Amino acid sequence: MKKLSIAVLLLGTIIVTAQEQEKGKQIEDVIIVGNRNAKRTKLETPVPVDVINIEKIQKASPQVTVQDLLNYVIPSFNSVRQSASDGTEHIDPVTLRGMGPDQVLVLVNGKRRHTTSLVNYQNTVGNGSVGTDLSTVPVIAIDRIEVLRDGAAAQYGSDAIAGVINIILKKNQGATASITYGLSGRNDGDTYQAGANYGTSLGKKDGYINLSLQVSHRGKTTRTQNHDLDIFGDNFAYPFADDPDAARAADDEEIRKRGLTRDDFNFQIGDAQIRQGQLFFNSEYPFNENFKLYSFGGFSIKEGKGFGFRRLPSETFNVVSSIYPNGFQATLGSHVYDVSYAVGAKYTINNWLIDLSNTFGSNTFNYNVSNTNNASLGVKSPTRFYAGAHSFLQNTVNLDVSKSLNRFNIAFGGEFRFEQYQIKEGDEASYTQYDINGNIATQGSTVIGAGGSQSFIGFSPQNALKKDRHSTAVYADVSYDLDKKLNIDVAARFENYSDFGNTLNGKLAVRYEFVPDYAVRAAVGTGFRAPSLQQQYFNNSYADISTSGAGIVTKGIFRNDSDAARILGFDKLKQETSVNASAGFTLKPLNRLFITIDGYWIKVKDRIVITSNITDPRLADYGVESGRFFTNAVDTETKGVDVVISYDWKLAGGNLNINLAGNYTETKITDFHFPENLGTPQNEFFGPDQINIIESLSPKTKASLGLNYGIGKFNFLVRNTYFGKVIRDGYPFGGVQEFSPKIVTDLSVGYDITKNINFTIGANNVFDVFSDRQIYENSYYGVFKYAPVQMGTVGSYFFGRLNFNF
Known about the structure:
By secondary structure, the chain is mainly beta. It has two domains: 2-227 and 266-805, Maltoporin, Chain A (Beta Barrel); 228-265, no CATH class. The protein is built from ten helices and 33 strands. The two termini are 48 Å apart.
């Protein structure tokens, strides 16, 4: 398998997929991201930029969301659906070049997009980070996506350490529509998506308005196996019983008496159910040749239904037996509202382009827990709870000025950004532990069960808050082009944050074409990522019964500026800083053959993570038994290479597009930063499982070979995607497991029924490939049959799609 990985590394990467080019012309598309020179094509940039034609890819691909499409198109991009992970089940974390979700900046039409309000803290990929929900932008609204695979904080500010994803909305005239239905090979996970897009002219010249509406549904999947849980007995699992066979037999008898089967006690483990509706627009109105107004934005509502761990009837401290005699598995319902809009004006005078804009975005995540109980209330417990919400708001004002002067392009500008983060409390019963008389429990109280809503404890008044900050930035960007032979970019950015101070970053990028169609390119720059408000202020501490007999104590996640954090010696969060370097070359040895190879090195200092669960005697002074904290705990080093090979071949009266691409990325933690007086061992401060998430839970090697053949009214797609090995550390309750590499095959066949109607059928993962089964000690007594790594846990998925173009 090492030989295969090396071969993939040497041969390449899929960046320009089979659908990205239209008879070899797509490669000439002018790109926007990465510099402010609007005259460069993709092969002329000093840093690697991928141009993904979403409409062409989506037409033939099984995937229906932005993150899933990119996951099978760009090997350095990773996105895997998670299971039983609270809010992270509802918003997929995405990564680029092995970095965190919060180290990728997302733009829409070149303007900064807001992140979600969700913090990933359930030990998934991107643990402790806050990303951007790409699924909030409907696929039907997107013309293309530009992916800058290089650090760009000196150009765009915070978050652009790993790269930039720029989503370009449609502005075409006419109407398009798409209807998709799909189902997994196990007859679950049914998916439907219907979208329509309409564009028309606005004003006398070059004006437009484009509207998009999309609705979608993704059904839940179940991927469990028979497990060893002791359902009615005193042991949590049969292996802990003195006589496992007798314990199992006793359970079988009790199940029979109740007229049930073992299937009635199965876990619901798999993909969460997601329903979503989206409305987007993109418009521009020219008053004259020199002055234009533009606006774009949209609204998305997402409703999710995920599932927590099952509570067994034998767990009497967690289950009110009179309400749930057979135990229960709680349902976590989400209502996620996402709003964005931008308005701006462009004015041209003496070849100077002045762009003034305001961009607003907000994301609100509401939690509703059902099929659960507050065991401390006994029979009086509700079974449904509003558990609270968190929201994030961002407003950005930009002034950008640019001008082309012969071979120079000069740009400069400024930015003012306001951000606000809020946590709202839930129902009292969702977070409170009560005593035997129904009063709020205090020290010395007698309690009959666990407090709060089981599976997801609500946010309390102590958690609730509203915090904000602002930042101001100025930048300058100069580029020089010598007859497309020599390109030089120099950028600098100064930024001041109201909550942690100043940062100054710069970047130099050079491309030199030493002979026609053969060029070398390189870049070096510094970067930063400001600690998000969510990382500074997210907390969900709650009251619970002490495991050491100390009575009522507080556990959970605590703010970085809390008393608990101060007593342990945690410093105030500060920005991550980075150094990025890249070098590579581009070549076009044949008319339709394009090759790019780019190596990169990223050094990040003071990376923000969430710690493992810390216990320390000093916490007892504040009534805290254990807690987790956000801190600048580690330095990391990432190195890797991207290779892209694309060839367009006229064959037998048709057009064959061949795309081979691959990525190798390796991230290592190079240093730890512990508070000086913290007596906690490393395994408790930042354990092996946390190190594993950063270093080896995502594939180091990923590659794809796509073959797309169009002839007459038919189009055929075959795509193989290689997911390299990953390692999962189940510490502190499990073991270390290596998951072997896997290859997933996508197939589709499209037919043009008429000039305006196309029908496509096909499959993702047609051979039903799964990651290796989990070792028993990592599977929660056999419940988690597969880990959500590599290609996820859906298995084979079959679809049909109608595309309309009028």
